[in-house]
Design brief:
Strand content of chain B: 25-35%
Distance between the termini of chain B: 21 Å
Structural class of chain B: alpha+beta
Number of strands of chain B: 12
Strand order of the largest sheet of chain B: 10-1-2-11-12
Strand content of chain A: 15-25%
Shape of chain B: globular
Helix content of chain A: 25-40%
Radius of gyration of chain B: 16 Å
Number of strands of chain A: 10
Helix content of chain B: 25-40%
Number of helices of chain A: 6
Shape of chain A: globular
Order of helices and strands of chain B: EEEEEEHHEEEEHHEE
Largest sheet of chain A: 5 strands, antiparallel
Strand order of the largest sheet of chain A: 8-1-2-9-10
Oligomer: heterodimer
Chain lengths: ~260, ~200
């Protein structure tokens, strides 16, 4: 039935749905997991990288984490080529705003400008929507550190902690139990690794498939975006794995044979 | 009177041994009336690249905003800082874009490239560049500046000597120009970093 109403992006179905937009959102669920966790002194962004082949040349730029401006970064889930277009737009908008007002573009306005552009592909033009979801993280003087999620429909929402991409339901359920609003940055780094270990589909997670970065403010008031080094990631993985083993041993001791 | 002399100002850039220096006066005037003594005309683009902009003050500021915009975008796209040579070419292009309604500003580009080789370039208001091995001057007292630099400049000066020579050239030149002076700032750029000093000078 929906077949008749899903060929054009800009036509509603009889149930009032835009099928092309929904299919685009489905594409995100196959993408590498992206996690964003906010604390009072910064934001942790973590993603699973898709390593297709060892023959791939090492890239200087990431396929998951992109800089929009000094005070804003983003994680990408979905079609990387589509993401590149939107990120270029966001970068231009942010720099143009700074040129006009000599003040950094507020994060929500950056997000809105990208989302309004995405929405226009769901209403006119006859072109397919962008198959990308973003996690925007940034700092502005107005609202401090903020985390936003956006999807192909052009909808966006602000989050304290969220997961998108593959196995995001598993990630979200861990957040419900383990995320505390007063977590520090280091708590969140550990939580991010813990979630990635659950959502990644490999039994032996390695640092080269994980990309974690933090957005913080230094003593001079500058926003710093730092990638966690492979050694630190390896340490975190070990820490989480031993914690998980200890918990399993405890629950084994409690159950035991009947 | 020329539009390039409305606000006044002077900039010198000079090359030393493994270092470059650039300095400007601090006066902002409305023809004869001095309005400010803290109007800097030299701006930092990257750690090792500075640009000095003389001429109409509103265009000095507008060009500074434009250049920062373009260099930030360059860094986002190319994942590296812009080189002095590329920056000079971009600035030249920006100015020529307005060939028939120009920016009333004559810039001086000064920096060290990735191999710490010095780069010095001056331009007219429509972007014609001149690349120097020794010094470049711009502003309302270029004749004075040229004379002082020719007299005091010698090649391969170390950062301390360069600072002395640059400062003396600028100070002496602006003392004979009613539209420049009222303070000066000097930046000496070396591979280890940049030292910025403010000069005490005649406040007239």
């Amino acid at each position: 039935m929906s077949r008749r109403y899903d060929q054009s992006t800009t036509t509603f179905s009889p149930e009032g749905r835009l099928h092309q937009v929904e299919y685009a959102i489905e594409a995100i669920n196959n993408a590498g997991t992206c996690i964003g966790l906010q604390s009072s002194n910064g934001i942790v962004l973590a993603a699973e990288k898709r390593v297709i082949s060892k023959l791939l040349a090492p890239s200087k730029t990431s396929e998951k984490t992109y800089t929009i401006d000094d005070h804003a970064v983003t994680l990408v889930a979905g079609l990387t080529a589509d993401a590149n277009i939107l990120i270029q737009k966001a970068q231009l908008n942010s720099l143009r705003y700074y040129h006009d007002y000599q003040t950094p573009m507020p994060i929500e306005q950056i997000v809105k400008s990208v989302c309004n552009y995405k929405q226009s592909y769901t209403q006119f033009g006859g072109l397919r929507p962008f198959g990308v979801a973003f996690l925007f993280a940034g700092y502005d003087e107005l609202l401090g550190f903020q985390l936003y999620q956006s999807d192909p429909s052009g909808n966006y929402s602000g989050w304290k902690a969220t997961v998108i991409g593959q196995n995001n339901q598993a990630g979200k359920s861990i957040l419900k139990t383990d995320f505390k609003i007063d977590n520090t940055l280091s708590n969140n780094l550990q939580l991010a690794v813990k979630i990635l270990l659950k959502t990644m589909d490999s039994t032996t997670p390695t640092p080269d498939r994980i990309e974690i970065s933090s957005l913080t403010k230094d003593e001079d008031g500058n926003i710093v975006h730092r990638f966690i080094t492979d050694d630190e990631v390896a340490k975190l993985i070990q820490q989480i794995q031993s914690e998980v083993e200890a918990e399993e041993k405890k629950s084994e001791a409690v159950t035991g044979d009947i | 009177m020329s539009i390039l002399q409305y606000n006044g100002g002077a900039v010198i850039a000079m090359k030393g041994l493994n270092c470059v220096g650039i300095c400007s006066d601090l006066r902002l005037g409305l023809q004869q009336q001095t309005v400010a003594m803290n109007f800097k005309k030299v701006f930092q683009i990257t750690d090792k690249l500075y640009v000095g902009l003389t001429g109409l003050a509103t265009d000095v500021l507008s060009l500074e905003h434009l250049l920062n915009f373009r260099c930030k975008l360059y860094k986002l796209k190319e994942n590296r800082e812009i080189s002095p040579k590329a920056f000079g070419a971009m600035l030249s292009s920006l100015l020529y874009e307005k060939r028939f309604g120009p920016w009333f500003s004559e810039p001086v580009v000064c920096g060290l490239d990735a191999n710490n080789n010095a780069f010095l370039s001056g331009m007219d208001l429509i972007g014609a560049p001149v690349f120097s091995d020794d010094f470049t001057v711009a502003g309302t007292c270029t004749q004075n500046l040229h004379g002082m630099c020719e007299a005091l400049y010698r090649p391969n000066m170390d950062p301390e000597e360069l600072f002395e020579v640059l400062s003396q050239c600028l100070l002496s030149a602006v003392d004979r120009d009613a539209l420049s002076g009222w303070g000066a700032v000097v930046h000496i750029i070396t591979p280890e970093g940049t030292i910025t000093r403010t000069l005490k000078c005649r406040q007239d």
